[in-house]
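User: I'll paste a sequence; please echo it back and then give the predicted structure.

Assistant: Echoing your sequence first, then the prediction.
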Amino acid sequence: MVDYYALPQTGDRAWPGRAVAAAAQPADKASIVVGALAADVASAMGADFNLSRFVPFVVMHEFEGLLFSDCEAFALGIGRTDLISKFQDIRDKFATPEEINDSPMTAPSKRVEALVAGYQKPLLGILAALEIGLPRIRAACPNFSDWLARLEALGSADL
């Protein structure tokens, strides 16, 4: 699981597909990087590498984006029900929670930090995710849901 937004586009540390994805539609960016990354890993590992067991996930902006899947549960989970409408206002500006971002200053965590003084990502993010629940996050976040489905399929496949 890597954060798309922070992946280098150019230079020696550029991630496969990142520069191409920059010009793509928001819904296509993650899949472009995942496809390019898979091809790069397969090329580096050789013909014997089982690519079906390599299941990368590119979260578009940050983990906090997923928390906007259910704004009421998000606010309840962090003990700030007074922020339900503010979280919902943010969420309503985007087609999916996975698209929440405009710049480094408006990344999902920056939006949360602006509303929640002392926001602690490891603690409050986990509490919010537990309150929201995986089914609601999956329903609102198609890229995340597709990644989990691929992981689940590995568990049921004859490997």
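The two ends are 22 Å apart (CA to CA). Residues 2-59 form one domain.
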